[in-house]
């Protein structure tokens, strides 16, 4: 059965910066869970960050990932992305279901680095690395597309 890499918060694990989750409420999730398809990872926790933690945003000009008070977490974010890629390779994963708008997992949109809730087109650090390595990335709003692609070889 082909595996899907999934952001741990979408799977219901309480790993977000605020200690919460963003569980996807959709019947297909129960089916994929039953089929044992999911490889679950939070790249930020895997990169060594605690729960809860300071919310961070990507600065697209400098490439850094920073908290609102200016602390630089870039290394931890890259380490988490690298762990995600290695896990994906280990399980021959072609598809990853990732949390939109996250500085790690964002697929189409991320916050713009000004901590003003403004969103821009862009990828999170893990999403970008996975995509660069040929893995198809989907947000929680792309479930129908993932369903279709999963059954195409
Ligand atoms: S890094 Fe990804 S998996 Fe972890 S809490 Fe953020 S969006 Fe969810």
Automatic annotation (TrEMBL):
Pfam families: 2-thiour_desulf (PF04463). InterPro entries: 2-thiour_desulf. It comes from the Bacteria. This is Purine-nucleoside phosphorylase. It comes from Terasakiella brassicae.
């Amino acid at each position: 059965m082909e595996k899907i890499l999934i952001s741990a918060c979408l799977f219901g694990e309480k790993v977000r910066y605020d200690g919460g989750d963003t569980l996807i409420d959709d019947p297909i999730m129960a089916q994929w869970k039953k089929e044992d398809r999911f490889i679950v990872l939070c790249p930020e926790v895997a990169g060594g960050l605690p729960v809860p933690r300071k919310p961070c945003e990507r600065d697209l000009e400098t490439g850094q990932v920073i908290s609102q008070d200016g602390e630089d977490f870039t290394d931890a974010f890259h380490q988490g992305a690298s762990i995600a890629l290695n896990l994906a390779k280990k399980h021959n994963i072609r598809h990853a279901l990732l949390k939109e708008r996250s500085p790690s997992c964002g697929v189409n949109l991320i916050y713009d680095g000004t901590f003003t809730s403004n969103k821009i087109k862009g990828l999170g650090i893990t999403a970008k690395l996975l995509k660069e390595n040929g893995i198809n990335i989907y947000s929680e709003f792309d479930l129908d597309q993932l369903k279709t692609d999963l059954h195409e070889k």
